[in-house]
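As a warm-up, study this chain.
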Amino acid sequence: MASWTRRSFLQGATVLTGASALGISGLFGISRAFAQDMTGQNDDVQTIINLAATAELFASTHYLAAINGDLNLDEVQLNYMKAAFIAERDHLDLLLSLGAQPVVQEFYVPEMLFSDKALFAQITEVAETTFVSAYLAATRIFAEAGETAFAVTTAQIAGVEAEHRALIRQIGQMLPNNISYAQFQFRNVSDAVPVLQPFLDGSGDGFIGPVAPPSDDEVAAIRAEAEALGYEATMPYAAM
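Now compare it with the structure written out below.
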């Protein structure tokens, strides 16, 4: 059995949310190869969309693995995963259309992630909380730059990621709506990198992989299932 544990990851994630203050380079032994070293400055647009696309590619890979895994999900929970999967792909498609380039194409995961429901719920909550915080950071940056449509769009995406967080907490038998305000943990999108770093390079203890992202055929098949369940793929975003 891997020495990686749920408790150690969650404790690490709690520490990592303060990454900006602690100095990112000292965490996980990273040199911020996936982000910019711009202390006190805003991430530029390309950094924002590249990192967001990486997160969305990881999220869709993660949810597909959950759909195909051994989590003993009931039908309703499986439907949650299918709709979440397609939402993440829609976010990714938007970012790619804007010229985003994910910084990695394969990901790493804890060994038991897709066979232990409680572990899956807790780790996915960390990931979704990170996504919400990162998109709120992007919203702040776009708002300061006067890019209102893009600020609203990133806020729209943050809202959907918060829905995913709530549903994941429900799957983990935790109170889904347990906070008054979505967590705003990061000044910049790149400040979220340390939380996700083990999934990007396998540096976490007990992580295995790499796991390849979904194929176009897999996306198309699950999209058809999600739309049959009532997923609305035509919802407009503000930057349109």
